[in-house]
Amino acid sequence: MERQQWGNRGAFVLAAIGSAAGLGNIWRFPYIVYQNGGGAFLIPYFIAILTAGLPLLILEFSMGQKNQLGAPGAMASVKKKFGKIGWWTVLSAFIIVTYYAVIMGWSIVYLVDSFTGTWIDTGVQEYFYENVLQLSSGPGDLGGFSIPVLLGVILTWILIYFILRKGTESVGKVVWFTVLAPIGLLVVLIVRAVTLPGAMSGLNYFLQPDFSRLLDYHVWIDAYSQVFFTLSLGMGIMFAYASYQPKDSDITNNALITVLANTSISFMSGIAVFGTLGYMSVTQGVPISEVATSGIGLAFEVFPTAIKLLPGGPAVVTTIGVIFFLTLLTLGIDSAFSLVESNITAFVDKFKWDKRKVTLWVIVVLGIVSLLFTTKGGLYWLDIIDHYINNYGLVLGGILEAIVIGWYYYPEKLRSYVNSVSEYRIGKWWNTMIKYIVPIILTIFLIYNFIGDITKPYGDYALRYQWLGGWGMLIALLIVVTLLNKIGNRNIIEVTNTDQALEEN
Ligand code: PFF
């Protein structure tokens, strides 16, 4: 069967932007900037984009597009055994989306309860931990399902199924909404935020430059990791999406648009978040440092609390509440389904199964695994698994991709392909980034986290949980990766040794 293609260039670019712009933009970026020198953080941030984010994005786009295959197939085209690296990234995406979908589920619960006023009338913390999560005493105590979360998650999977059902055809339509809607919603949140008293002091905290922070290497590690995560790299997504592009499509221009749009969405989120936090700090008489936070706490505790303080009565609170949770949902859903598509593409490519059936089955299996996170102890597992898969799964995938292309495939070959199809040509600097800079920086990041985790187990969970949800999970992943690569490559005769590959061009 002929490979599906995006109906037009806009659909592809929007899908890539949709994947990149997700929860990380709204709940991680603003806090990272605030913590790492405010406006001064722009320097490491843009350096990280130029030296690692953009080069890797171009690598993933071009490998997917050139080979017309998702990550495992594209990597295996260099050498069969490198297919494992592709599978590793795809399975990292698999793990991530099992809990990313659950966070979407919480957002749906909050959204519905915005209309009924439930979280508005009770204390937000109480609502989140007792009504929604019904949190148990620890990871060893799963305590049955939280029904609201379960329902929200089921709805999320149904939504994702219908979006992915017709592949690029349905995704290409949906992204016009899931990318543009959150931008519009963010504009509303920004206008509301900056017209509140105290908003400017909040923005000051967000952006006031402190250049002395740039001497601290943690700031640089944060910049590189933020850029890496925000661009959805090391997850097989950009390979998969680009593999549905015609072989002669522009690459560098599309990569630049993706990066710029994603960065803009991050800044818009920062203004909305810190404007609102500034107001909260003024009305409650507490310093910004006490309300500024990131992650789940920001989205499901602090921000809703701030919304409750808004002037104008219940109608305003409800409206802004609905807008905020719609923003989370629309921002997140296209990241979630891109993580699923990375898997679907990989299985269809390697096993030649029917795409419709694969879509259904991948989602059913993902749905079953995600049940773990809908239990009352789910939040603990989410926390542990998220830590390990992000810091080891994704980062390792990124390092290995760069090493394979940099040292086995020759970046020059890929660069000449990119330049033969693209409006903006990339210079030799790209080869240097892929060969040296990306692997070195990501390896530093990996080692840094590893030392941190062995000296102080993550989150103070008992060692057996670190093993089960962390190291054990990663080892299990490695075994599955090896198996999948073996089975998937059964019918493939290795054609590309380096010389032949060179001739090919
Ligand atoms: N880029 C998306 C985000 O920032 O939310 C998707 C994503 C990337 C999710 C990396 C999770 C992750 F670890």
From TrEMBL:
Membrane topology label: Multi-pass membrane protein
Main localisation: membrane
Sorted UniProt keywords: Membrane, Symport, Transmembrane, Transmembrane helix, Transport
InterPro entries: Na/ntran_symport, SNS_sf
Signal peptide annotation: none
UniProt-listed GO biological process terms: sodium ion transmembrane transport
Location(s), subcellular: Membrane
Record-level GO cellular component terms: plasma membrane
Transmembrane segments: 12-34, 40-59, 85-109, 145-164, 176-203, 223-244, 256-280, 315-337, 358-382, 388-410, 430-451, 463-484
GO molecular function, one term: symporter activity
Homology family: Belongs to the sodium:neurotransmitter symporter (SNF) (TC 2.A.22) family.
Protein name: Transporter
Natural source organism: Petrotoga mexicana DSM 14811
Lineage: Bacteria, Thermotogati, Thermotogota, Thermotogae, Petrotogales
